[in-house]
Amino acid sequence: MKMHRFALRGLGFLVLWMLHCGSELAAAVPPDGWYDYSAYTDCRGQPEPALYNGGILKFGSSGGDPDGYRTTETGVFSPAFVVYNLNKTTMYTFSCWVKLEGAYSALITARLAPDNTGARCIATVVARSDCWAFVKGGFVLDWPTQTSVIFFQNADKTPMKITVASGSLQPFTTDQWAMHQQDTIRKRRKRVATIHVADPQGARVVGASVSVQQTAKDFPIGSAIASTILGNQAYQQWFVDRFNAAVFEDELKWYSTEPMSGQLRFDVPDQMLAFVRSHRVMVRGHNIFWENQDATPRWVKNLTADDLRAAVNTRIQSLMTRYRGEFAHWDVNNEMLHYNFYEQRLGPNASAEFFSVAQDADPLATLFMNEYNVIETCDDPFSTVDTYVSKLKDLRSAGAILEGIGLEGHFSKPNIPLMRAILDKLATLGLPIWFTEIDISNKFDAQTQAAYLEQVLREAYSHPAVSGVMLWTALHPSGCYQMCLTDWNLSNLPTGDVVDRLLNEWRTLQAAGQTDAHGAYSFTGYLGEYVLTVSYNNRTTQSTFSLSPGDETRHINVQM
After folding, report:
1. Which of 30, 61, 348, 469 sits at a 20 to 30 Å CA gap from 457?
2. Active site residues
3. Is the alpha carbon torsion for 222, 225, 230, 236 positive or negative?
4. What span, in angstroms and rounded, lies between the C-alpha atoms of 266 and 284?
5. Member of which family (predicted)?
6. Where is 540: in which H helix or E strand?
7. Is residue 127 within 8 Å of 100, Cβ to Cβ?
8. Global confidence as pTM
9. What is the enclosing helix (H) or strand (E) of 333?
10. What is the pLDDT of residues 331-390, one digit of tens each?
């Protein structure tokens, strides 16, 4: 094993355990080129073997055991990996297992320092002293590097011993990453169907003309809307031509529906609900409560604990009784990881009580946590993936009926390998995952916004655990929150071009052909609703069918 002493400028400590690693991409790619979606959120007695047999992380220049242990003290020394000659645009996925001494639990960050130019977060984990915790993340470089260091820090900088095992750094080319996405789309968003055509006697009809047209999509892709859509026929048509899901930007929030105590205002959300209902658009309820004090109605802030408890119960009942069965989802208590207005005043079980009361008021709605900076970055210590998982488990242990994972998705520059790794960890919970408020920061120019949006949407749509995608692009005369798809005249911006192109890509425009010698015609289509037209000898029949999720071929029988 080769040892190196390597000073990282500006980090305040010396990294000692250096592991000499080659990084020849062709030699490190798995034989089949496939990404490993494995992840763990439970703490384990022993670490699992390294993914990809360690990838390009090898203990020693001649290879060795990637599952070996490396231990050292933080604050003075950190366990670390040195890797050489990393490539620009390559997708690197990183994983390992971590255990502590000196503290029962701590937030540990894995950081990458390329060419000694400063460090950035590539993964986080809430590690413990009594078991091994799984780290999964990744990164993409903007430029090639000669020498890079992956090291570990505890968030509060207190001295403790960190032990790292089963380290893995696996590179994928952009083509391979796209291949993984397309493979998941083929398996999860599409299905093979066979149309069987026969005459009344059951004889096969050979040479019949078959045409299928998709009329509705199964996968929900939608956008926020605001009251600006009311009475705007052009905007309404633009919206329903594209989206099958909606969420109200502000109109259901408490400060909108009850700006003064007892003064309920539901006329605007009622009209918006009538619009989406008339066009068969599913709609999310956002939100019942928001832990951010700045987003709390003024009159609520000064209530006593008893009056506040009565007010929140009235809020749930008035909102969910009025709209019982109307909203598919409810974000029950928004951004609980960053704010605590209600829990600070009503106790730590306040959120669990909100969920229980909401479940009783509308048992058919799926109840969600909703949070920012879980998927967008790993630099926010309040909303790491493990913190999200821990809060969700705590709520369920307290009796909350919590059935959905909401990820806002307010991105700056996206880290796509990290995004996939976080989704992998959240997927272990077995709950539907929704992107609820996707946009790209307006600090970027229009073309850059569009490029980053496409990266995010492709990764979200293709991940097997994601159940729906919502854009935070409600249109106003003055613009949008961070990102619009069109201008006020509904002329596409570059982001709108991306969305239109992907929406067309992710649907079956039309499939047509003739039945074969067995009287059958097969095609692969995106999940959703279809119209089927079959013609033979001047006779035509038309019917409808659906492609729902499933691994088996869907068989449709038609009698001419």
Report:
1. 30
2. 437
3. negative
4. 16
5. Belongs to the glycosyl hydrolase 10 (cellulase F) family.
6. strand 539-547
7. yes
8. 0.92
9. strand 329-334
10. 999 999 999 999 999 999 999 999 999 999 999 999 999 999 999 999 999 999 999 999
